[in-house]
Amino acid sequence: MLIVKPIGYVLALLALLAVSAATNNCTSWSERYQTDLEGVCVCSEATCDTIYNGHLYLSGNEAGVFSTSKVGDRLTFSTVGLETTANDAADFVIDTTTTYQSIIGFGGAFTDASAINVYALDSGLQDILVDAYFGDDGLQYTLGRIPIGSTDFSLTIYSYNDVEGDLAMENFSIDMDKAKKIPFIQRAMSKSSRGMKLFASSWAPPAWMTTENTTINCAVKGYPGGEYWEALALYYSKFVSAYEAEGIDIWAMTTQNEPTQQFSFKYWQSLRFNVTTERDFIKRDLGPVMKKNHPDLKIIMMDDQKDLLLGWDATLVDEDSAQYVSGAGVHWYKDLDFLIDTAGNFDDLETFHNSYPDLFILATEACEGYLIDGLMTGAGPTLQNPTFAWQRAQIYARDIIGDLAHYASGWTDWNLVLNTTGGPTWIDNLVDSPILIDEEGGAEFYKQPMFYAMGHFSKFLPPDSVRVALTTSSSASSTLANVDSVAFLTPDNQVVLILSNRDSSAHDITLSLSSQQLSTSFTLEALSIKTIVIGEVEGNSSSSSSNSSASSATETPSITTATPIASTDSSSSTSETLEPTTPDHSSC
């Protein structure tokens, strides 16, 4: 049943009036390119689309539907009617009494390139971009990755201590980060009403700590427990302390970004080690140092490709190292854009969870444009290729849903912001990002379909949302084989269903909530992503029966933020708003 709140009718009426009065303000016209960028929302200081928070003002006899599609919808809001009867034969049945893992968050990485690009924009446009990712009218990101030192997406290789032999880290300094990266993070934090969890990852230590005095595919001198490995742990601890001094709390850190040499042809900075070295580093150096200096910080092991996870448990079978580990980080690059339909290694995540149910699994890096041209969607940005740009959005959704449906607690994009060439990067490792900026004039930025794909999750699944049981009927399982799906219950007791239709044809969908005796139906358009929000439902708690590792922060509703995003195509389709069947009330 639904909780009846009469004030909800007033809020719903005001919200509907706001929708009617609002201007569709997503434009694909680019002043820089002097053309329409199909499938892209172009933002300037004069105009930029926002996301209408219609799910906060639902009446009790309707569900909110947010749609993004190849033909042009961009988190377009509509409603469908709710029936107060269950439908056991529905295509999808949600059971909110069966719960799994809880959500930590969704977000991206505060790389040097991202910060450089933000500050290359006109000052007013900078605020609009930060709002787009972190504000209440945007994606409401709650997760951020912070590189420790330089990465391939820096202008040059640097460390926080270049004084050779300074094992005590007396010359440690993050001054390099104070120009752009730290201010960017601080601005993001100030925009977030849900709060943010920030985790750190290192690519390589200072060169003088390595065996060949280089950060490229390097190794630390000696062995874990030795003076250089102890100094490395101190280096990381100093980073956490220095950021805390800037008002930026570090929630967690990974032991090392991609420690295995999966891609031997890549020659950017990276410390290489195997699972036993990681185990020994954690138990002899990193774990004890962090427990002493930062006892609340969580250590995330591996931080590498998903296909390695089941063979990366030496740290966990050793009690001395396992005591320091809270979770495992995974990357997606072996998916190869689902070149093989069975890619994703999703079952491995579930197997890992079943073996180590007290640890969270977090997707810590992914991006598009990492392949070579001619393979799937190719290399670099696809700003002016609407077919590839849409495919990348749907690949994002497919991987996120697959991860979440197999016990991942969140998903982290790589660069938050790149320029239209896919940089800057000191090694020309040009890739794509949900937002690209006009690096020539600083007067525009471009929201690609990937941006909206991320929003289908980040905006509607706040921290502490819990995955719930979702079953597909036997009659629909073959018809909907290319529809990816996952369902959650939020801390505010809203039920959220996310669907991604990879078929080139539409599907008429029926949905039932078995515990609440509710059902509805809607059309899932061809090549589309939908988030359906139902709530607030009674008699459920969003505390997970599995591990819980997310923030208790929840969304702050605001009825003043009622600007719906427009379709980028006048032929864009939306779900039909059905007439209510019974009067009732509800409220990502």
From TrEMBL:
Residues 541-588 have a biased composition (Low complexity). One of its GO terms (cellular component) is membrane. Keywords: Hydrolase, Signal. This is Glycosyl hydrolase family 30 protein. GO terms for molecular function: glucosylceramidase activity. Belongs to the glycosyl hydrolase 30 family. InterPro entries: GH (IPR017853), GH30_C (IPR033452), Glyco_hydro_30 (IPR001139), Glyco_hydro_30_TIM-barrel (IPR033453). Pfam families: Glyco_hydro_30, Glyco_hydro_30C. GO terms for biological process: glucosylceramide catabolic process. It comes from Phytophthora sojae (strain P6497). Residues 464-532 form the Glycosyl hydrolase family 30 beta sandwich domain. It comes from the Eukaryota.
